[in-house]
Amino acid sequence: MSRKRPKEKSLPSSPSPATGRSPDREVPAAHRAPLPAPAPDPKRWWALAVIALAQLMVILDGTVVNIALPSAQRALGMSDADRQWVITAYTLAFGGLLLLGGRIADLVGRKRTFVLGLAGFAAASALGGAAAGPGMLFAARALQGAFAAVLAPSALSLLATTFTEPRERARAFGVYGALAGGGSAVGLIVGGLLTEYLNWRWSLYVNVPLALAALLGAPAFLRDRSGRRGGHLDVPGALLGCGGLVALVYGFSEAEPRGWSSPAVLALLVAGVVLLAAFVWWQSRAASPLLPLRLVKDRVRAGSLATMGLATIGMFGVFLFLTYYLQVVLGYPPVRTGLAFVPISAGIVVGATQIAARLLPRTAPRTLMSSGMVLAAVGMVLLSRLTVHAQYATHVLPALLLLGLGMGLTFMPVYATATAGVPAQDAGVASAVLNTVQQMGASLGTVLLNTIATGATGRYVHAHGRGPAHDGAVLDRGMVHGFSVAYWCSAGVLLLAALVAVLTVRPSKDPS
Fold it and tell me: How far apart are CA 153 and CA 430, in angstroms?
C-alpha cells in the first residue's frame, strides 16, 4: 500500500524592494505604478548651442557672399555672365542634395553626419577664401552647398530628438526658428562689415572659426544613436529626387538671365517635374524609400510644409530688393546697408523666442503661423509705399519690424510642428524635407519676384522716359515702382500662406 506524500508548502516569496509586493503575485495593470520618464540629458542646452551655431553658419552663408560679390568679381576677373555661379553653385548643391543628406543622417547616425558636415563645410570655406580664380571659387561654393545639405538636416533632426518635453521643445525651436529666419539678414550685415573693413575673402573665411567651435562642442554635448542597422540607401530614389531638385533649382536660377520662355529654362523645369513625379512613384514602391510618403501624407505636416514654402516665396525677395533700394536709390554704403537689416533680425528673435516660444505650449500652432503671415503681409504693404525720397526711420523701419515679428511667429511653430511625431529613424529625412521646401521656396520666390519687379520697371521707364537728361531719375523711380509691384505680390502670397495654415494645420496645444 503506497503511502501518500505530504503536500509541500511553498515558501513565501520575499517582497520586491521596489514595490513591497511579492514578485509572483501579479498586480492589475490599472494599479501598477507608471514607469519613470527617462531623465533629460543634462547637457541638452549646450547641445542646443552647438546646433544653433551650425545652423547660423549654413543660413548665413546663403547671403553673406552677396554684398562681397562685386569685390570678388573685380579681384578674380569674373565676367558678368559667370558671376551668378558664386550663388548658383551653392544653391544647386544645397537644394539638390538635401534629401540625400537627410537619409544619410538616418542611416549613418545624426551626430556622425553632423560632424562630417561641419568639417567639410569648414574645409570648403577655406578653399573658397583662398580661391585663385573663378573656377576654384565656384567649385568651393558647390562643395559648401554639398556639405550644408548633410549638415542642415542632421542639425534639425538632432534638435527634434533631443528636446521632447513641450515647454523645452518650444524654447529650443524658438532659438532655431530665430536663426533660420534671421540668418539671411545677419549674413547681409556680416558681409557688409567684412567687405568694407577686411576684404571679400573673409566672407568665406568667417565660417572656419564658427565650424571649429561647433566641432569642439559636438563630441562633448551631442547625443545620438549610432545609426540604423541593416538600412539601405535608396539609390534610384536618390538619383530621381536629387536630379529633379537640381533641375528645378537650376531652371529657376536661369529664368532671370535667359527668360521664362527660353528653351533651356523650359527643358530644365519640365525635366525637374518629370523626375520628381517619377521619384514619388518610385517611393511608393521602394522597399527602403529615400522619403517615406507617410511623412508628407499627414495633413498637419503637409500644411506646415506648404506654409513654409509660401512664406519663403513671399519673404526672401525683400532682402534682394531692399539691398538694391538702400544702395542704389538711397546711396547707402555696404556697412550701412547691412546694419539697416538689424531691425528685421531683432524682430525675428523677439517673435520666435519671446512670443511664439512662450505661446506655443498653450496656443494652436496655426494661430501663430497665420498671425505671423498677416503681420508680414502688412509689412510688405508698407514697403510698397516707398518712394525715391523715403526716410529710413519713418518708412523702412516700421515695415522691417513687422516683417521680423511675422517671420519669427511663423517659422518657429512651423519647425516644431513639421518635425513633431516623426519616428526617430526618419527624423533626418523629415528635417531634410522641411529644409528642401524652404530652399526651393527661397529660390523660386527670388526669381519670380525679381522677374515681376524687372518687368514693371521696364514698363515704367518705357512709359515715362523723357530724354537723356531725365534718365537717372526715371530709372530710380522705375526701380522703386517695380519693387512696389513685387511687394504687393509678396503680400498676396503671405496672405495665402496664412489661409493655408488656418485650413490645414489642426489646432493643437502640444505640437510634440
Answer: 8
Question: What is the CA angle 239-445-64, rounded to 5?
Answer: 85
Cβ-contact 264, 258 below 8 angstroms? yes
Backbone CA torsion sign across 432, 408, 383, 503: positive
Summarize pLDDT for 359-376 with one digit per residue, the tens.
888 888 889 999 999 999
Q: What are phi and psi of 2, to 5 degrees?
A: -75, 140
User: Of 493, 312, 322, whose CA–CA distance to 396 is shortest?
Assistant: 322
Task: Name the grid cell of 148.
Answer: 550644408
User: Which residue type occupies 401?
Assistant: L
Residue type for 436, please?
T
Using only C-alpha atoms, the chain has a radius of gyration, in whole angstroms, of 26
Q: Roughly what angle, to the nearest 10 degrees, separates helices 134-162 and 110-129?
A: 150
CA 405 – CA 178 distance, rounded (Å): 10
Distance CA(189)–CA(442), nearest Å, equals 19
Q: Are 165 and 428 in contact (CB under 8 A)?
A: no
More confident of the two residues 473 and 141: 141
| Cα 444 from Cα 433, distance rounded (Å) | 16
Cβ–Cβ contacts within 10 Å for residue 281, how many?
11
| pLDDT of the residue at 510 | 43
